[in-house]
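Q: Can I see a sequence and its folded structure?
A: Here is a first one.
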Amino acid sequence: MKPIPKPIHDYVWQRDGGRCRFCGLEGEHVHHIYSRYSQIPAHLKIQETINNNHPDNLILLCSKHHFRVHNGNIVYDKVKEIEISRQRAKLVKTTTKLIECLIKNKSKLAK
């Protein structure tokens, strides 16, 4: 499994202010809202990227909440988290490296 590309990882970290989206403590893990291999619903209009690594589909979590999400102990509203990502993105500068990375990682299936 390939890691999330660094420009995307760094952007999500900055967008979420280095804090866990659930508790506000220091973030440690960038987590996929819709998993790397699942289909993101078309109505959300997220550009298809390799392994679903689009920033709108990623959130920063502390290790405790990341573990709880993966164990099914936390169920959250995925659409709401994507909307929060989009709102926060309006406050963060998009870098050239991020744009280039998104173009490079655009899914070959997306046409």
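Q: Show me another, different protein.
A: A second, unrelated one:
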Amino acid sequence: MLSRVADNLYWFSRYVRRAENTARLVGVGSQLQLDLPRSVDFAWRPLIDTVGVGDVFAELFPEAGRNVGDAEVMRFLLLDRRNPSSLGSSIDAAREILRGIRDSLPQDVWEAVNDLHIYIDGDGERSIGRRYRIDFLNRITDGCLKVSALLSSNVSRDIGFQFLRLGTALEQADMTTRIVDAGASGLVTPRNEEDRETFRNMQWMAVLRSLAAYQMFRRQMRQRVTGELALRFLLQNAEFPRSVQFCLTRAQRVLPSMPTRPEVERRMNRVMGLVRNADPVALVQGNPTTLMDEIQMHLGGLHEAIAEGYFNG
């Protein structure tokens, strides 16, 4: 397979999964906003910083400050093409890649991605408000899952499919840490200190729900939601498909079907060790965002090794 085609397949799967999880990330805040009483202060700005585009937002909107409203954040995260990580930008990028590799993937995949593109352009602006936002996010999530299902069901298990799997696994691992990061970033500020623990657990419940993990959490953990248990489940659970460890294990299992690249294997082992050795109890008592940032940096290093080993030769 040409390295250009492998690169495109890898990035196509990453952009589709990024779009899905951007919708899920916004869903964390939207669901919390609906559940919380009006007396509780809710901050939207941490969602932007969680995605890693705080500098872009500050440059585009220098007067916004920290107390930016939900409409501005929604537009920036969902529709603004000046934001390279926005939902619209991700679908546009996936669609553009697909134009060049349409012979490598089923026609149904093109139609599904094109439907998402048309829907975002047609209904995105009215979905910024609270009334239609949840329906819009659910429609995007379902559309991205449809693309993933078409890839899983209708693509031959050749080397190209392995690059699709690799991109999907790494992007999901990265976005899971970012959604966890959002839940630990102080979205909610209670007026009374005695309410802090209650609202913190509500945040973790919203994180689990946004990752479609709440029912599986209850089924496996059989306890009420706490920060420690939610972190343990989303970071280290070996059976839930969106946990970081599950995604990294899936990516690691792809590597034997590809040409050997020692640097990729070394980077993979390093980030897996970081996740496996994490202590959820200490994380909850300290600052979970520090570990999430570290995992994201290691995933970035793993991506660079993959690009150098397979795409830049």
